[in-house]
Amino acid sequence: HYDVVIVGGGHAGAQAAIALRQEKFAGTIAIIGAEPELPYERPPLSKDYLSGDKVFDRLLIRPATFWAERDIAFILGERVVKVDATARTLNTDTGRQVGYGELIWATGGEPRRLSCDGHHLRGVHAIRTRADVDRLLGELSHAERIVVIGGGYIGLEAASALVKFGKAVTLVETLDRVLARVAGEALSRFYEQEHRAHGVRLLLASGVSCIEGDDSVRGVRLADDEILPADIVIVGIGIIPAIEPLAEAGAEVGNGVMVDAQCRTSLPHIYAIGDCAAHANRFASGGVIRLESVQNANDQAVVAARTIVGREASYDAVPWFWSNQYDLKLQTVGLSTGFDTAVLRGDPASRAFSVVYLRDGRVIAIDAVNAVKDYVQGRALVSNGVEASPADIADTTRPLKDLG
Ligand code: FAD
Predict the structure, then answer these.
(1) Ligand 1: lining residues by beta carbon, under 6 Å
(2) Over the range 286-307, which residues count as b (16 or more CB within 10 Å of their CB) and which as e?
(3) Which of ligand 1's atoms lies nearest the C-alpha of 81?
(4) Is the pLDDT assigned to residue 404 strictly greater than 90?
(5) 77-122: per-residue pLDDT in tens?
(6) CB–CB of 191/326 below 8 Å?
(7) What pLDDT is recorded for position 286?
(8) How far, CA to CA in Å, does 22 sit from each of 1, 66, 70, 85?
């Protein structure tokens, strides 16, 4: 039995334990995690870790001594498969039963797999865990041709890291532009041009019909029957929140576990945070959203920890995110979905510019490419939903802070 059990040792779970101790929580804490490693940063998996620029030890969120000093226990390499919200117990896949006072569910999600034939062949990879990337890196020296399926951030980052190794990289996206779900067209077109300029073959509006091969992958067959020869296929088509045990225990679920502003699920003494938690968010055009970002994982963790120790806390953080591709540092603040006007600030040809998104005349989001100042100064515009004219926004001689 532990006073607080945290299921999932990723960004959200780790931060929840850290925040509990910061809030002077004196009870016992255990983190149960399916992966064998201590909590580590996931973003470098498709960036510096994949490119070999960072070794794994530098990815650890805290060194082993940190957790020991704060008396935070770990049960690693075990997956929680059952929760009994009445008895306040849970079971792992090794048969272990653990009792809890409060439960924090922080399980993130599993990579969505292709549903077509051949999706399970050797050489087909996802990028979600260290083990995924180590497996991929293990095959890389024998691979020349790589097909990336999915033009979201992870697919694009992987393509940029792998083309640097001199591999022939083709990226296939079903929609007619990359980043279609998360950014406006100007940003998509800019990144498409950058990837092409770096030698990535981009196939847009292209469906995948199956993965070809016997034991190992040989190629990707597209909907138009073209076959892309491939030694490695990387699938980056999103995640499915890992919420089954909670759903079976009776928690209200939608696209994720539903939580309130204090990160409480509909079950007593059970909280959910991070990639697996669907919550009302004033920055989301649809109201309820499930965010996949380090910011959201960390901020929800702090809210859950404070609520557990009896402090007032409500989740109301401004969403932010980043992506590194080549020498381009993208920083985004706010959520652009549902914008009615996108204003270009600066010239994409200079490779330093921003796109400012408006809805009903108010700033709702900013994508800043190699434009740290716009990102930093634009945060307040997004947070306060400031009204600004497109002409003022586009005027790069005026700092964004002057528009607030
Ligand atoms: P996770 O970090 O996924 O941790 C969940 C943990 O729970 C996992 O270890 C999982 O194995 C474990 N688990 C799942 N089910 C169970 C179970 N039943 N029992 C026990 N353990 C379980 N975000 C950004 O903001 N910026 C970026 O640049 C960025 N880049 C990314 C690049 C990649 C390749 C990936 C994969 C993600 C990236 N993200 C980025 C997203 C960010 O990493 C996630 O939002 C963040 O990790 C979410 O934290 P989490 O704790 O909710 O989930």
Answers:
(1) 7-13, 32-35, 42-43, 45-46, 79-80, 106-108, 127-128, 154, 242, 274-275, 292-295, 297, 321-323
(2) eeebbbbbbbbbbbbbbbbbbb
(3) 18
(4) no
(5) 999 999 999 999 999 999 999 999 999 999 999 999 999 999 999 9
(6) no
(7) 87
(8) 22, 13, 10, 27
